[in-house]
Design a protein that fits this description.
mainly alpha
Length: about 190
């Protein structure tokens, strides 16, 4: 069997990164390379033609997930005619929904990858990228008049409330408390948005 063309190799790499981005958010970064490659429709051996290590893939998939999430919210801001308050309310409403809770694979990487990134050494690219994404999301959530730090204190409080509520809701899924957590956080955040 012949070698893949350069274009096919790039497509395979993109497919692996995209698949890893979704599966890491859904299942965690402990997922095996064999399972990941099977989900991407490629052989286990093809992994090592594309990546130096699983850690390199974690770095790239984390960056991909964060970038995808930030870009989607930048586009949403533009769809709201540049009205920051409307875009923030829409984000809060969508973030604290049962659909988002139930679909970690396509959801917020800040919430989905928090525990895995916390275990990474401080000098890892995944941690740097994740930290930058947290700062960008906090800045996006800050009131238009916020001054100071990485998005201002209010942006950080809103982000912490969103992420914490989502994580608790996922952990209590299947009980009435799960929906109560989402509703309580949504009400609290909408009052300040």
């Amino acid at each position: 069997m012949g070698r893949a063309s350069q274009a096919q190799a790039q497509e395979n790499r993109r497919r692996v990164v995209d698949t890893a981005s979704r599966l890491f958010r859904e299942q965690g970064t402990h997922l095996s390379v064999a399972d990941l490659m099977k989900a991407a429709g490629l052989t286990h051996g093809a992994f090592y033609k594309q990546f130096a290590s699983k850690e390199a893939l974690v770095d790239e998939a984390t960056a991909h997930a964060i970038d995808e999430w930030v870009r989607s919210h930048a586009a949403h801001f533009e769809q709201n005619g540049g009205r920051r308050d409307a875009a923030q309310r829409d984000l809060i409403d969508a973030y604290l929904s049962s659909e988002h809770r139930d679909n970690a694979a396509d959801g917020c990487p800040v919430a989905a990858l928090a525990a895995d990134v916390a275990r990474e050494p401080e000098d890892r690219e995944a941690r740097r990228t994740y930290t930058q994404g947290v700062a960008e999301l906090a800045a996006y959530l800050a009131p238009a008049d916020a001054h100071g730090g990485e998005g201002g204190e209010e942006g950080l409080v809103r982000l912490c409330t969103l992420v914490g509520a989502l994580l608790l809701s996922r952990a209590t899924q299947g009980s009435p408390l799960s929906d109560e957590i989402l509703a309580a956080a949504r009400t609290a955040l909408m009052e300040t948005a």
